[in-house]
Amino acid sequence: MSYMDSKMSQHGLIGSESDSQRTLYPYVTGTSVVALKYKDGILMAADMGGSYGSTLRYKTVERMKPIGKHSLLGASGEISDFQEILRYLDELILYDNMWDDGNSFGPKEVHNYLTRVMYNRRNKFNPLWNSLVLGGVKNGQKYLGMVSMIGVNFEDNHVATGFGNHLARPILRDEWHENLSFEDGVKLLEKCMRVLLYRDRSAVNKLQIAKITEEGVTISPPYSLKTFWGFSAFHNPTVGAEGSW
Amino acid sequence: MFRNQYDTDVTTWSPAGRLFQVEYAMEAVKQGSAAIGLRSKTHVVLGCVNKANSELSSHQKKIFKVDDHIGVAIAGLTADGRVLSRYMRNECINYSFTYESPLPVGRLVVQLADKAQVCTQRSWKRPYGVGLLVAGLDESGAHLYYNCPSGNYFEYQAFAIGSRSQAAKTYLERRFENFMDSSREDLIKDALMAIRETLQGETLKSSICTVAVVGVGEPFHILDQGTVQQMIDAFDIAGEREAPAPEPDEAEEQGAAEEQGVVAEPGDGADQGGATDEGVAPMDI
């Protein structure tokens, strides 16, 4: 352990000595999630890949799940931590339903709950290694927010995690506008996902698009994006460099 | 209620299936000075009578703001009431912090009731000696609840607790059907009238009562004395008797004094503006 770590563990500040109980690095990870607000609610897209380091190991990982009646959660980062978060939320929604009193948690409440959970874990040096996207509609109000693994949270009209921040957000900043129709929203998301597919090495060409409106959640069945590789530079790539492949 | 051999412990049942200590706790509520509450679709008004022990002392605070959307009026052991208000404030603020959303009144009231119930089932505790009228807003509208020392809670359109609350209850019973659609001003006016009913003839002034309001777009706040006195004057109800309700039970009229014997009141005709007899009858029955 580093000098600082050993000092901190002496003072009981860094958790148990064995360190096997803390998350140190992620193992099976999901890549970007992209989401935007449109006319009737929220649209969210994520591919179905679970990478094991540099191996694209799992190709049918559902990284978006409905939460309660009004919310949709998408996650990138450690998949097992995402599953743990789903268990926490399951319990939260269960207790909320047990009140049976006409009140229910909307996306804002769930988002803030998640912020508290992520921040508290970060303070214990045992983070849930995820970037979460939480979207939903309640009583006509659309909500879209993000929480990072260190508890940073914010709301916006369009959000993305991981590589999506660098590749998709600029597209969204240029082309997003209020009251996108469903078709335009999907086209915009597919444009972002296509760029990510070309440029993010941990992306797989199998994605789902989810929508949440006042009526509820629909997650599309998995499908693939059409890609184009017929660039002239890809024909005879070794033409300028004999011996390479 | 008389002393009996089953009333020493809260954990002792009587053969008739009663917990006397809990019932005695409810007696304590009846001894406290009156508190009333009423609600419409969009607003809830709480009012209470503030009687100081002596001219030298100030009066006890009986209405507490619990959160922007919830307030409570108490009757009974004020100290117990303060402690429970602190609990309620804590619950609200913790919920707000975790969920960035106001705690629904209905849930707070259940938590409060469960807390009260604990004290009815531990031999080393005693029931809280305070009744709480909880006024609040949530997704489903405006609500008024009454929490009992027994751990029961009920939702009300209008209610009154404390000493001489029966007079206020009778007044409210006559008019409650109209409350749902009342305006904010009418609701406050009805609250002041109900408070006045409990005063048994004493003049209603803002120095002896407190009124608080919560509504859609209006956070819970206690109206200041000046405003209350203005309203008392404006509605002209300081010493006056009850104006006819929309469906009047007694057909007394104040201005049109010609009709005599509409209600068989002895002696005084309605010439006197109906001021003398009207309010007396309901309370005396």
From TrEMBL, chain A:
> What is the organism field in this record?
Rubroshorea leprosula
Name one matching Pfam family.
Proteasome
The residues forming the signal peptide are none
Q: Which GO terms describe its cellular component?
A: cytoplasm; nucleus; proteasome core complex, beta-subunit complex
Query: Which keywords does this chain's UniProt record carry?
Result: Cytoplasm, Nucleus, Proteasome
Recorded superkingdom: Eukaryota
Question: What name does the UniProt record give this protein?
Answer: Proteasome subunit beta
Q: What is its main location?
A: cytoplasm
Q: Which family does it belong to?
A: Belongs to the peptidase T1B family.
On assembly, the entry states: Component of the 20S core complex of the 26S proteasome. The 26S proteasome is composed of a core protease (CP), known as the 20S proteasome, capped at one or both ends by the 19S regulatory particle (RP/PA700). The 20S proteasome core is composed of 28 subunits that are arranged in four stacked rings, resulting in a barrel-shaped structure. The two end rings are each formed by seven alpha subunits, and the two central rings are each formed by seven beta subunits. The catalytic chamber with the active sites is on the inside of the barrel.
Where in or outside the cell? Cytoplasm; Nucleus
Query: What residues form the membrane-spanning segments?
Result: none
What is this protein's function? Non-catalytic component of the proteasome.
Q: Which GO terms describe its biological process?
A: proteolysis involved in protein catabolic process
From TrEMBL, chain B:
The UniProt entry, under InterPro entries, shows: Ntn_hydrolases_N (IPR029055), Proteasome_alpha (IPR050115), Proteasome_alpha-type (IPR023332), Proteasome_alpha1 (IPR035144), Proteasome_asu_N (IPR000426), Proteasome_sua/b (IPR001353)
Q: Which GO terms describe its cellular component?
A: cytoplasm; nucleus; proteasome core complex, alpha-subunit complex
The biased composition feature labelled Low complexity covers 257-267
Name of the protein this chain belongs to: Proteasome subunit alpha type
Indicate, by first and last residue, each region the UniProt record lists as having compositional bias (Acidic residues). Answer: 247-256
Q: Where is this region: Disordered?
A: 240-285
- One biological process term in Gene Ontology: ubiquitin-dependent protein catabolic process
- Enumerate the UniProt keywords alphabetically: Cytoplasm, Nucleus, Proteasome
Belongs to which family? Answer: Belongs to the peptidase T1A family.
Q: Name one Pfam family in it.
A: Proteasome
Role of this protein: The proteasome is a multicatalytic proteinase complex which is characterized by its ability to cleave peptides with Arg, Phe, Tyr, Leu, and Glu adjacent to the leaving group at neutral or slightly basic pH.
Q: Where in the cell is it found?
A: Cytoplasm; Nucleus
Subunit and interaction comment: The 20S proteasome core is composed of 28 subunits that are arranged in four stacked rings, resulting in a barrel-shaped structure. The two end rings are each formed by seven alpha subunits, and the two central rings are each formed by seven beta subunits. Component of the 20S core complex of the 26S proteasome. The 26S proteasome is composed of a core protease (CP), known as the 20S proteasome, capped at one or both ends by the 19S regulatory particle (RP/PA700). The 20S proteasome core is composed of 28 subunits that are arranged in four stacked rings, resulting in a barrel-shaped structure. The two end rings are each formed by seven alpha subunits, and the two central rings are each formed by seven beta subunits. The catalytic chamber with the active sites is on the inside of the barrel.
